Amino acid sequence: MINVTTEAQTRLGQFLTDNKAPRNVRVFFPSTGCGGVGLLSLTVDEPNAGDFSVTIGDIVYCINRELQEVTGGVKIDFKDTGLDSGFVVDSEKILPVLDPDCGPTCGGCC
User: Fold this and answer.
1) Which of the chain's ends, N or C, has fewer CB atoms near its CB within 10 Å?
2) Does 102 or 44 have the greater pLDDT score?
3) Phi then psi for 97, rounded to 5 degrees?
4) Strand pairing of 85-91 and 74-80?
């Protein structure tokens, strides 16, 4: 399940319009290097057969089904603290450390 707040929907719509981008947004889990906890991110990308997708307003949101099993439900929001602002993608479940055998100092595994 993907939920999008009204603020995030408005900001994403404006971003896609301003950049003349397709109205397809993917939730993904980028690699952060060894020993790091990754954060979910957004990118513009077409859904494919291995995805769960949902249309909210005029934007199609998608996430790889295997990733969705790891994340559970996903919430996309937009935060503006006055000092910084941006999209926040939260997962229902705690995301795993990318390489649990590698310590926080890397120890040569990178």
Assistant:
1) C
2) 44
3) -70, 140
4) antiparallel
